[in-house]
Amino acid sequence: MKTQILSIQDPEAIKLAVSIIKSGGVIAFPTDTVYGIGADLWSEKAIDRLYQVKGRSYDKAIPILIGEQSQLNLVVDHAALNPQASQLMNAFWPGAMTLILPKHKSVPNRLSAYPTVGVRMPDHALLLRLLTQTGPLAVTSANRSGQPDAFTAQQVENDLFGRIELILDGGTTPGAAPSTVVDCSAAELNLLRVGEITREMIDTALA
What pTM was estimated for this model as a whole? Predict the structure, then answer.
């Protein structure tokens, strides 16, 4: 497979990325934390491509990135939403926090076989622009499973060249760590991974 590399600032970048996503392809792009690879959330074949590209076990769910709050209705069961989850969204979105939330019935089980799914709105203007045009995307970090996270397009190229259709080069990502992950699927919140957003910051937001 030929992998194209294009600056995310290129006037044709977003248009090309949307076209590849709509045709079932996989693209890599910068976020506010690390580089990610994304595919059409509603296509099981595209989700399978993500698992294959990454070499990821199918028992590990793939998170979702959204471009605006209105897209949350497409992927989350609002009737089962923990009120504290809304507080965290208001405090840290867009930003480096992934929330584990009750999954909407329309989300493919191929993405997550569990009743929950991870969701994040990244703080990256050009990526948000892409997400508003594609809709929510299935996204995981742009590296083979077991390899280090990628913070540059060159690192993505070294790991995934020839395995995906497009790499959008946005330079070095501003974040120094993956997102913080908080499980909001039960009455008591559970901090699963600490990234740039600390426990103290979460406690302050919920106080």
Answer: 0.96
